[in-house]
TrEMBL record:
Name of the protein this chain belongs to: Alkylhydroperoxidase like protein, AhpD family
GO molecular function terms attached to this record: peroxiredoxin activity
NCBIfam families per the UniProt record, alphabetical: ahpD_dom
Alphabetically ordered keywords of this record: Oxidoreductase, Peroxidase
Domain (Carboxymuconolactone decarboxylase-like) ranges: 24-105
UniProt cross-references to InterPro entries, sorted A to Z: AhpD-like, AhpD_core, CMD-like
Superkingdom of origin organism: Bacteria
Organism: Asticcacaulis excentricus (strain ATCC 15261 / DSM 4724 / KCTC 12464 / NCIMB 9791 / VKM B-1370 / CB 48)
PANTHER family: ALKYL HYDROPEROXIDE REDUCTASE AHPD, BLR3452 PROTEIN
Pfam families per UniProt: CMD
Length: 117
């Protein structure tokens, strides 16, 4: 069965909204960390999202793959750029990363409006 990354991130977003309400201090801390980590600096937002995608693939995190590929599409990443990042994730993570890299490519295609395989 094929995964739908837009559906995965929508479901997670709804649950995260509940967590924001139920544990606001923790979630505010996480949001502050995310804002600080993704701010432009020596690396721009796009490069940081590439790094996050590679880590999401290596750690086998569907939600991470969904959120970060969506962000990369918004930031204008090309399929070739994403594939090169996935190549590095495969290199560093071996076979399991290859399986999640294939899913990350599908997520990129879904968010790009292309037909995912």
């Amino acid at each position: 069965m094929s995964k739908s990354y837009p559906e995965i991130t929508a479901r997670l977003s709804a649950n995260i909204k509940t967590l924001r309400k139920d544990i606001p201090e923790t979630m505010a801390g996480f949001s502050a960390l995310a804002k600080a980590a993704t701010a432009d600096g020596a690396l721009d937002k796009k490069m940081k999202e590439f790094i996050a995608l590679a880590i999401g693939v290596a750690t086998r995190c569907d939600g991470c793959i969904g959120y970060h590929t969506e962000a990369l599409v918004r930031l204008g990443a090309t399929k070739q750029e994403v594939e090169e990042v996935l190549g590095m994730a495969i290199y560093m993570g071996g076979g399991p990363s290859l399986m999640y890299a294939a899913d990350a490519l599908m997520a990129f295609e879904q968010y790009s409006g292309q037909v995912g395989g």
